Amino acid sequence: MSWSGLFGVPAFAEIAKRQQKHCILLWLCGGPSQFETWDPKPGTPTGGPFKSIPTKTPGVHFSELLPKCASISDKLAVIRSMKTGASEHTQGINLLQRGHQPRPPFTRPTLGSVLAQQLGQLENALPNFILLDPCPEGNEFKGFKAGNWAGWLGAEYAPVRVGGEFKIPDAQQLDSITGDDHEAREELRKFFSRKFANENRSAAAASYNATFERVKGLMSCAHLFDLERLPQADRERYGPGTFGQHALLARSLVEEGAPFVMVANGMPWDTHVFNHEVYQMVVPDLDNIIFQLTKDLEERGLLEDTLVVAMGEFGRTPWINQARGRDHYPNAWSLAMAGCGIQGGAVVGATDKNGVDVVESPFDEENLFATIFSALGIDPHAEFDLQGFPTFHHVENQADPIKEVLS
Amino acid sequence: MRLENRREHKLASHCHDLCSGPGGGLFAACFDGGIYSLDTAGGKHEKVAQHDNYASGVHWSAAQGQLVSGGYDGKLKWIDPSAEKRELRSVQAHEFWSWQSAISPDGNRVASSTGQYLCGGYKYEPAPEREPSIKVFDLASGELLHALSHVPPVESVAFSNDGKLLAAGNLMGEVRLWDLSGGAREIARWTTPDFTGWGIIKGHYYTGGIFSLTFAPDDSSLYAAGMGSTTDPAAGNGKQLWQRFTWNGDGGGEKVGAASDGEIGQGLMESLAFHPGGKFFAMAGRLFKGDWNTAIFDAESGSRVHHQNTEMRTSAALFSEDGKVLYLAGGKGQNKDPEKPADWGRLITFDVVID
Fold first, then answer.
1. CA distances from B87 to A215, B11, B70, B91, B212 (A)
2. Which CATH number fits domain B2-353: 3.40.50.150, 3.30.1780.10, 3.40.50.2000, 2.130.10.10?
3. Each residue of A211-259: pLDDT tens digit?
4. Which residues in A have their CB inside 8 Å of a CB on B?
5. What global pTM score does this model have?
6. So where are chain B's domains?
């Protein structure tokens, strides 16, 4: 029996699914404001118009825009002391997606690519890195999406991008071809491909093979990406917007065994204009998504094996600009996590009374990546297995994980 | 008409609204929640009331001898600025912000608009209202007179000059018009797509809306101001826009005038004000691109007759009762060091010259 055949045995597949670690990254691209989410400063000159509310965790307050998250704060860990070095989107996205400053000419793989390699299963029909992003545009994020996600790991670990306008095209087997014919054609393609690769030592052939394997896998599971198949009651609970619908799809894909799913939605958090007018809508949407996702994963017994991270590339300025917006701010910002390996109720670090600077336990992207890897049971300081490259580690500089948020 | 002899006064925080009080004095509603009596000559401003959140509106009622203010705390406050106990009444008008408020010309009613923009569809269309979007109160008794429906958020509200009509405009560019004589009967609604933008570039949601409404002096038409459509909500680069509408017997509206493309730049316009003479109106807001954020338009032709760049975001424009002064209130960007004295609000005063 082949590996793929083995996974077709229901009992084995079920065990494999249960042991699989997963990660869902809610990518809040543009840079969400810490003031209107996890680190409110009501009544201060920088606080804005939204109040704070108490949470289930004694002494901890969130923005009033997060009432549902406040009710499950015992399942969330919040880091209020992120201090990173990139204040523009392209640099910030790269930093928080790759976990390290650039070191040309080498391209470090993104978090999703590393987790796809580390958590992905052999012969997994589902892609090991799924990017759900229904917003095709997005300025700097659009540029990033067009770039090299997998870096030195190779195309095998690049994301399959689906969602909204990105349906999986041509993934249905033609009626005019029988299953046996299809298998026979695939065997013939493999034979010629192996022959070509052996005779030419071609990396390109290996990439083509990886792509064919992925397409073959996608053909068998394309239906799993169809929003319409999801229960209507679930779709209503997650909210009608694209972010909620694709967060639900992420949950569904994790249930099916996907190791890493990133949910993005363009760059709606980049509120240089109308900060409060936009956040009155997008933050309640996020509040509901985190609540529903955490609750659903827990009810399905998946939360302890699934890490949920909600973050962007930086935070937003304490001061309000002339266009009633907040600008980019990497000096003191927040993020939240839940699930696998995470200590629920932990609130780590602190900013000063106006949120201008970190006054307790500053952490950077390396600490964050070390935390994510540790939570998922991956050695953060292990070396990448690379030939002809300098030595690279999952996380460089022996950076420590944020122990206070690890369970 | 020209504007001359600019004077500038600093306020502690951004000024959202402005009104004339007894004897030509000014009152301001500011982001720090304060309602201030402004002493433009001495520069000392006295706080006469405090909201628990941004103050968004302030109006003087000569009939009642009182101020009424609105705020993002959802409250309306009745204030006697000369009394020892100044706050006379506080009414929780809305669960969400009072985006804007307006007083009837006879000084006997106040209207306030509200509504939180919540996700209501796949493209982030606004969800239906959870509370009435407009409320009208009797100023003498504080009694609720009318609770009116709209699609939130409703960012602007205005009475007609005869006090019989009430108009309200929202994020989606929808205007609703009620006849308040003998009840509250909706007589027209229409939508202009020009005041709202759906994000394509950075995020899929709606921004903008109608930020100011004012009736023509003869109440035969309604002017709306805001920002033209933009595909990048993070840029604030829609046109500096006003449009003029009439309404008809079948409940619809018709655009009968608009700012000329050659005379406008880009940026959000937040305020419209008619000159007491009725021949000109001012529109003011924020400049994104172009050379003005305050302009005077000829009401008949719609052409721009004067423009200024005051280099601030203007939220309120107000002519003095004699028409000789134009007040512009708003603010610069907030200080980057919050520990420094707060002085980012601005009141700019111009003399009005009519050639």
1. 70, 22, 13, 11, 27
2. 2.130.10.10
3. 666 666 676 777 888 889 999 999 999 999 999 999 999 999 999 999 9
4. 30, 44-46, 49, 51, 134-135, 137-139, 239-242, 244-245, 265-274, 277-278, 280-282, 284-285, 317-325, 354, 356
5. 0.92
6. 2-353
